[in-house]
Design a protein that fits this description.
With 262 residues, the chain is α/β, with parallel strands linked by helices. It has one domain: Glycoside hydrolase/deacetylase (TIM Barrel). The protein is built from 11 helices and 7 strands. A 7-stranded parallel β-sheet has the order 5-4-3-2-1-7-6. Strand 2, helix 2 and strand 3 form a beta-alpha-beta unit. Helix 4 runs parallel beside helix 5 and helix 8 runs parallel beside helix 11. The termini are close together.
């Protein structure tokens, strides 16, 4: 199982939480936001923690553009879809600029994913696929939860079912690239705690699974940030470092790996 944290580089307190989940818990990988306010801090922490596997968290919604500094990205998925229909946003050029910022910082991403799973949209997925091949990044996130969690919010369960409609086109565009056998964590975003993590681990299928998470410390920067994931990040962090979770992993014989070792 790969335990991957999104949003590395978002704020310094999120960065510290991700590193703590790696050093003291089960987190094995993270994806870095090239347009994050705490990008430089994340790069410093990545260099100081070489066992933390680094990928690229490609951003098409929220925050500012890397390709066109000072320009704001669409606020949400609806805004992104409108911009794509109107051809107002240079998807490949934007995502390539984000990749280059990470590479120029001396980091070599081992995997790619997108903020808010925007690579489920064909124009974004086409750009992600092109970049993965261009820069030799072998892994791309497969963002389809392996089960329906009865305790997840109804809206999350409904979206999970809807996302599965994109599977055939997703597989076609990523042919020749690597994806994990399974993925989980979407339905628990914002509500993941120790019991939810244990429940997921108990149901983990055979094969390689990516578990997506969003740990962090709730400091001043996160409190001021434009995100709904605030208090929940500390709850996730406690789950990721808990002894109970480690015991379930030991009992079930789950091997913790990262993308470089998968």
């Amino acid at each position: 199982m790969i335990v991957n944290a999104d949003d590395f580089g978002f704020t310094r307190d999120v960065n510290q939480g991700i590193v703590e989940a790696h050093r003291s818990g089960i987190l094995t990988a993270t994806t870095l936001m090239a347009n994050g306010d705490a990008f430089e801090d994340a790069v410093r922490l990545a260099r100081a923690n070489p066992t933390l596997d680094i990928g690229c968290h490609l951003v098409m919604v929220q925050g500012s553009s890397v390709f066109e500094p000072g320009k704001e990205m669409p606020r949400d998925l609806a805004g992104l879809v409108q911009a794509l229909v109107r051809r107002e946003i240079p998807v490949y050029k934007e995502l390539r600029a984000q990749m280059m910022r990470i590479l120029d910082a001396g980091l070599q991403p081992s995997h790619l994913d997108t903020h808010k799973h925007t690579h489920l949209l064909p124009p974004v997925l086409e750009a992600v696929s092109r970049l993965a091949r261009e820069f030799g990044v072998p892994w791309v996130r497969r963002p389809f939860d392996f089960g329906i969690d009865a305790k997840a919010r109804l809206t999350k369960r409904a979206v999970t079912l809807g996302m599965r409609l994109a599977k055939p086109g997703f597989a076609r565009l990523l042919e020749g690239l690597k994806t994990t056998d399974h993925f989980t964590g979407f339905q628990l975003t914002g509500t993941l705690d120790g019991s939810g993590l244990v429940r997921t681990l108990e149901a983990l299928p055979e094969g390689l699974t990516e578990f997506m998470c969003h740990p962090g410390f709730l400091g001043e920067e996160l409190r001021a940030a434009k995100t709904r994931l605030k208090e929940s990040r500390e709850v996730e962090l406690r789950a990721l470092v808990s002894a109970e979770v480690r015991e379930v992993i030991r009992r079930r014989g789950i091997e913790l790996v990262n993308y470089r070792r998968a």
